[in-house]
Amino acid sequence: MATARLPNDDFYKNNDDKSLEIFSIIWLDANVDVKGARNTEVKLRSIINHIKKFQDVKQCQQYIKQASQKDRLVIIVSGRLGLEIVPYIHQLRQVISIYVYCMDKKNNEKWAYKFSKIKSVVVDLDELVSQITTDHKIQKKIEEPLSINIFSTGINAGKSTTGVNGQFVFSQILIDCLLQLKSTEIDENELIKLCVNEYEGNHTELSNLREFQEYYLPDKVLWWYTKETFFYKVLNAALRTQNIHVIFLFRSLIYDIYRQLQKYQCKNLKQDIAQFISVNSFFSTTDDRSTALFLLGDLTTQIDSERVLFEIDADPEIVNTKPFANVSEHSYFPVESEVLFMIGSIFRLNNINRDDNQIWIIKMTLCDEDEHDLKQVLMYMKQQIESREMNLRILGNLLWEMGKFDLAETYFTRSLKQIPLNDPLHISLYEDLGKLASQRGDYDMSMKWRQKLLTFKGKNPLATNVSVNKTNNSIGQSLPSNHINNNTKWKQHGITIVGGNGHGNQLNQLCGPEGIYVDDDHQAVYIADCCNNRIVKWKYGAKNGQVVAGGNGIGDRSDQLTLPNDVIFDKKNDSLIICDQGNRRVVRWSRQNGTKGETIISDIDCQSLTMDNNGDLYVSDGWKNEVRRWKQGETEGTTVAGGNEQGNRFDWATHIFVDKDHSIYVSDGDNHRVMKWMKRAKEGIIVAGGNGEGNSLTHLSLPQGVTVDHLGNVYVADCNNHRIMRWSEGSCEGTIVVGGNGEGRKPNQFTRPTDLSFDVEGNLYVTDWGNHRIQKFEIDLN
């Protein structure tokens, strides 16, 4: 073999020690063909990206010893230098395998067989690459460190949030915080730039990155996660080493995985029930025992580590907060029977024993968040987060409490760069940064932040230290409160808060009410009082309503409405937007002393409308059976759901809802189902009903009002069944929330409910069309 000295500088730029991946290759060889080595490195980088090369034994040994035990190092050594270094590094946890590349295979095998981590002695570079490729397929599954937090149930357990139990709680809260924090284009670009820098010179991964940027869709996230690319490598490394900033940049993709696991949970897994370890990464398992045993390796071979097999009992009917699913059908490797658990899944440790094959068997049960002794602390901290609109300041304060001061400062300052120059949030951020600097002993910096605070207040005298809380209807639709979860129940007897005095046109009466909008800011509800051709506003506790639009008889004048059937509040323009169905138009009506409406959309069979968080308006057209979106300034609108193509067809598209991801939910009335259209999707999916008309828990009958909570649960007014239903994401059947006691006027009955909404506290409001009233159902805290 020809010899030449390795150049001191690696031939690709990203050769620093801060790799985004867990696995690295360390290559120690004083004499190797440079050209051959470079060609080999290109091949090796498609398997393990980070390669560090050494010519000096002492430097190499020092580097390996200083590596974290969470790192996983694959060592390539020459025969002569291997004999020097292997005895000193073989026992280190971070070293997982060693390959001897030499010219004299026979003599080097004589000493190599004494060390179990030496996988092979090779004389050919292609053989070296092939051997590392084969071994890594198993190593990547069993050698990645598992990041966990343990909840102790001993004496004084649960009293501290700085020790083991504190880590347990904060890890759960951090996950929830990141899932709620909206991703921005700046974050997405930073993630791509980070990966581009990491994989510079790695043509395989750069090609994967380009494909990801061009073709990624949320419903393909499991395919990307299970494919052996930068996506899996970087995300898993960040989760397992708790690299919070990289996790922060990945958060929208983590949310996509969360939603997909929710979606497929019920359909794919019906295991025996079997609960305290919190896993801080996605937990990949298999339901094939033989596959798991195969990954443990040859039982006759001595290894330095212990062989452990986890046996998990999991019941999707019990566990609602952290989903899991068999992802095989959606995986890049569909033949692998892979069951994936969500980040932060909590398991009860049931039993540990060693079997006859010297394998440790750890039996665990997947449990819900309310099954352990810290549930009250955990739920309280969750409510503190969920009651506010998530932003970088909340994330920074959480990290501050966790003792991660540098990261807290990073996100405080990041927030300052992203908010408008006159945003009152500056006050809170400057105060936070000043206090944080003082706590770290940097009093000069603390004074600088406080000076910035005074300067800001001087320039913005009307600004106050406002809470970052925002009500659930800060956009043009009433959103379910974040207090709601899969176990939330409502009192079954409603309170009549509007109407209920028979049908009529007096101010204490309604006639055929339809759409409802809950305005928490002004403690009022707006009702489309359809047969009275008006919109009325009722303050909480009032005995009479106030006409705020129409009410001048039936007609098409600008001060008239004809059979209005929906209304929303546009906060930005301080106006109501109304479906004036009988006049085939959508009108805007000023909320402040408005006497006339302005037609903003004409010639449309308007059934329902809503607005997304960008201020874009969505309207369902019952005649064309489609939903169109109007961006601000547009005159034509764009079809975003429905139409007449096969697979896209509605039969009377009525009420609609748009979630924070801009997925559209449509009540498809005469098809007795609710459909979901994800952003840019060409076809919808059924999320409720779809089994024909009926009154069982798998059926709907003429569904009307629809809304979706932050967990993806669909709430629908099941009109002809006189009930409100909830369908969890991926569920095969719904549950009755309220009603379902037959048609009638009793407090626990409806006569054809047409719409529903929630207030900021999670109380439910239902338009009881046939009884000419609005019913309020309070959350049942018992």
Sheet bearing the most strands, described?
Answer: 5 strands, parallel
Unreliable segments of 5+ consecutive residues: 1-16, 154-164, 266-275, 466-475
- DSSP helix count? 18
CATH topology of the largest domain: Neuraminidase
Average pLDDT works out at: 83
Shape: elongated
Classify the oligomer. Answer: single chain
Q: What is the CATH domain class of the largest domain?
A: Mainly Beta
CATH superfamily of the largest domain: TolB, C-terminal domain
Instruction: Label the structural class.
Output: alpha+beta
Roughly what percent helix?
Answer: 25-40%
Number of beta-strand segments: 37
- Which radius of gyration do the C-alpha atoms yield? 31 Å
Strand arrangement within the widest β-sheet reads: 2-1-3-4-5
Write a short abstract of this structure.
28% of the residues lie in helices and 26% in strands. With 782 residues, the chain is an alpha+beta fold.
